[in-house]
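Example record for the data management plan.
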Amino acid sequence: MLALLTSGLALVAPLHPRAASMAVGSRRATLAKMATNPSNIPCVDEICGEEDEIADVPWYRKGSAYAEASRQYRRTIYMHDEWVKHRSSERFFRNVRTIGDSGVAQSLGTELSFVTGTAIFCVLINMLLTGYQDFSGAAQVAPLASVGKYIGPISLPALPFTISMPALSLLLVFRTNTGYFRWNEARTLWGGIINSCRNVVRQANTYFPDDPRNTALKARLAANTAAYAKALRNFLRGKTNDKVLKNELYELVDKGVMDASQAEACMAASNRPMFCLSAMSANIREADLNPIDRARIDASITSLVDLTGANERIFKSPIPLVYTRHTARFLSVFTVLLPFALWPVMGSSWNHWATVPATDVVAFFLFGIEEIGIQIEEPFSILPLEAFCNGAIAATMDEMIACEKAGKFDFDGQKLPQTKSSRPLVN
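Corresponding structural encoding:
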């Protein structure tokens, strides 16, 4: 029985090579430092702070509350130092030492408490029915011996678990793999968003004329591009992110690259990302560009529309609920009944009490695999979208505009005169 459980877990383990997460306390301190010192780190998490929302949650719901609130601490970006630590030969001891502090372990409080209670009940009821040994090792008569002689110990044969374990393993593998595919696709889509946003500003630097009017339009185009990325992040994060988005839009207003009326119109729009994309299209419509250059920039904006739709598809379409629920029910019934199959096997321990930790270990890893699949199924609240918007998009575009304005791309030290015949304009 135990050998089969081990083999079932082995089917899943290779799919998750990453080691267990670091201690929650150290992760929180690291992210807090990242938020207050953005110049020295690759990622800024705007909402990392104390988990006050968990403090007033009843103990029996704290697991699910932690699982939701802790998602903001999983928005990790790896640079050189992080990869060195990730590959460190000390990771084994670090991972074992921090099992109790891992986010997965703290998210499973409800499930593990129920399974532990079932295992304790299994041991106690069989002690009452079949007898037990006291601390001196002397056998004691069962308090419910009159009942026990008719029904015997309450236990289950291992065969049903032996037959069903491979099926449960396959369900969990598929569940977790599908969640990872969704996470990976979301990250790939945001990579495309970053590249397309950079291309819009790069093309604007190349094609927009240098007169004051077009320079102002170029700055507005860059601002609307940054606003688009943040509006898409806002859509994927929900209403709790509205205040952050509004503050970011008014930062653009303070810089003089967006009107207050446009910021309010964006907040009032039913589809904020599309509003920002429409504003970008309006900017290139007003610019003095020839048709070919306008079409090139418009192609980049079109790609952003496609990427927006792909993000909406992932966000609005979960893994089919019939599959998710059946897997969860299968796993729940399996782990709740598991103590009754392990009880006969643990007869060498004092009064079969080894049933409880054995059940807990198996339940922890099986429920942990399911929890990982649940956590990564909706990827946008664990991807570091703040870092993408603020660093990879907004900061990079600001630098591109500033360098162009300062003439840092004129490597010969002077600008060549632009003839009207070389790039005909459309009035």
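Summary line stored alongside the record: The chain is about 70% helix and 0% strand.
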